[in-house]
Amino acid sequence: MKPQPFKITMPYVPSSINLNQDAAKLRQSIEQINKQRTYFEKLNRVLDENEQLMYPFRTGNSKIQKKPHVTDVQYTKQKKKLSKPNFSPQIGCWEMYIMDARPQLYLVMINVNTRYLMVQPIKSKSTESVVSELELMKMSQDRISHPINVIKSDGEASFPPAIVKVFGPEIVHIVDTSPYTYHNKTVDAVIRTLRNALGENNQVLISNPIIMQQLVYHYNYNKEHKFTRITPAEFHGNIDAEYGYIEMMKHELEKINSRELLQPKLNPGTIVMVHLSNSKTSDKFKKRRRNYNVLAMFLEYEGTSAIVTRLTEQPNPDGTINVLKVPTFAVQFICRSLTNIYQNGSLTTLGEQIKHSFNLSITPI
C-alpha cells in the first residue's frame, strides 16, 4: 500500500524572545527557534507539492549531485576479485539488524536475493519489542506466501529468543559476531543506502517513522534491483525469477572459486599482516587507504574468512588465545613462520625491516 501524505509538526516555539531572560535561557530559546527553522527548511527540500517524499536515492536520480568517492584501486580490485557473490542458494533467506537512528530504533529485515525490505520502528532492543514487530513482518510475508526459512544476524542478545518465539525452533538462525567480516553484507548496505538517501537531511529526518515508511516504499517499488533491473517488489513476488537469479549467482561463485585456486594458500603458523576494515564507521566520501596495521599469525580458514591471532596477543587465564575473523582478501602474506622474523630473543633482518616499515612493536610474547 502506498504511504499516505503526511504533515509533520514540532512543539511550538514563540518567535518573540524575552531579552530580559538570563543568558542561558536566552541562548536556549534562540537554539530552539533555529532548530525548528532548520528542520522545516530541510523537510521542504525532500517533499513534493503533494507532501510525498521525492525519490531520494542517488542511483537513477539526475537531480541529486553525486559527491566524489575516491577509493584505493588495488584493494578494491582484490576485494572484487575474491569476494563471494552476495546471494543465498535457497528461497527465503533474510538478514536482520537493529538500526539506531536516535532517538528512534528500527528493526530492519531484507531478503538476501530479492532485496525486498521491511522496516518497523521499535521502542527498545528488548526481546518483547523485537517480537511484536517481527510478528508483523511474518504476517506480511504469510499473506503473499513468501517464506522466511533462514535469518542471518549479528550478536544482538534479543534476536535468538525473539526468532524462536515467532518462528519456532525449526528456523535456521545464523549468527556471526565478528566486526571485520561481511556477514551482514546486505542489511549493512541497505542501511547505508537509507542513511545516504536524504543527504544532509538524514540526521534530522530519518528518525521520523513516517519518513522512513515512505523511504522504504521508494526502495521497494521504485528503486531497481542491482542485478535483475526490476524493483524488489516485482522480484519478491516472482519465485521463478528468484530461482533464475540463484543459478546466475552460482555461476559467478564458480568463477570466483576457480580464481581462488590460483591464489597461494596459507598454512597454519604463517605470519601475515591484516587490514581491519573500519568501513562501517568511516565517512563514505573520505579518502580511504588499505591500512595493514596488525601483525598476526594465520591459524585456519573458515569458509571465506581467515582466522588469525595477533602476534603479541596475551593468552587468557585458561590458556586460550583470542582470535580475529577477517576476510581472506584483507590478509597479506609476510613470511612462512615466526622464526623468519624473530630468533634467539631478537629480531632478524626481515623482522627489523617489518618493524620499521610498519612502525610496529613485533616482539612476540
User: Radius of gyration, rounded?
Assistant: 25 Å
Average pLDDT across residues? 77
Q: How many domains would you count in the coordinates?
A: 3
Q: Which sheet architecture does the biggest sheet show? A: 5 strands, mixed
The CATH top-level class label of the largest domain: Alpha Beta
Determine the number of helices (DSSP H or I, runs of at least 4 residues): 10
CATH names the topology of the largest domain as: Nucleotidyltransferase, domain 5
Helix-strand sequence: HHEEEHEHEHHHHHEEEEEEEH
CATH superfamily of the largest domain: Ribonuclease H-like superfamily/Ribonuclease H
Low-confidence stretches: 5-15, 279-289
Helix and strand composition category: alpha+beta
Under the CATH scheme, the architecture of the largest domain is: 2-Layer Sandwich
Number of strands: 12
User: In which order are the strands of the major sheet placed?
Assistant: 3-2-1-4-5
Beta-strand portion reads 15-25%
Q: How helix-rich are the residues, as a percent range?
A: 25-40%
Distance between the termini: 61 Å
Overall morphology: globular
